[in-house]
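User: My collaborator sent over this chain with a note saying "see what the structure looks like." That's all I know about it. Can you take a look?
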Amino acid sequence: MSTGLFAARSQGPQHGQATLRKVGEGNSIARETWLEAALRTIPPGHRILDAGAGELQYKRFCTHLDYVSQDFGQYDGEGNTVGLQMDHWDNSRLDIVSDICSIPVADNSFDAVMCIEVLEHVPDPVAAIRELDRILRPGGTLVVTAPFCSLTHFAPYHFSTGFSRYFYETHLSDYEILDLAANGNYFEYLAQELRRLDSVSTQYAGQRLGRLTKILISLLNRRLASLSKAGDQSQDLLCYGHHVLAKKGGGSILDEKPGTPPAETPLDSPIR
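Assistant: Without extra context I'll predict from the sequence alone. Here is the result:
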């Protein structure tokens, strides 16, 4: 499912990315292409919070904005060594170090908020959405991406997956959804995991794939590329994740349930 401004930017190779990548290799490329375009819609000078900013890898798309970063700052790159890890992680450049569900700033503090591939690392993602709503001013822009399906990564800070279109339609029901786009589809996802098979089988089964198996995978990926072009609607069954660009209305999600977290730290005095 894909609607809105940037639908074509987030899909499989049928939308022009076949010449740029192979089937199953476009997850992060498509997401960053979409994100850069979405952030360009925010007027210059607007204040944006990058919630769960990590190493500030998306700050480069915000040169026209007043950028503020936030993260809980506890991931060190190694985690508990389970699943996919980064080996090294630098939290030294964060402006605000806090729980994403209790960010120490006043209500309506930001013109825009982005939260990119973060919700799966939050024990209560709905509470996180509500906090982002609290700090976003009415009429402000919310930019969110999260995986629909992902392997364990950044453990022990990996709590959930399965963020479908219905998650956003339910929890952002008071927002105007400007774009809700699936990244990839069923066939793209299968190809991604087939490309990972050799490293996974080596690490977890102690066996490298043989030459014949690699040839079969290559042939199967060619077929998956063809199926991806023909079966774009399979994104409703499985995809990498969803990209959301939304505009906050005059009200607030918090209006439905009381309990706004206290937060009064001035923006010009960031917590480090």
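A starting point for your reply to your collaborator: The first strand starts at residue 2 and ends at 4.
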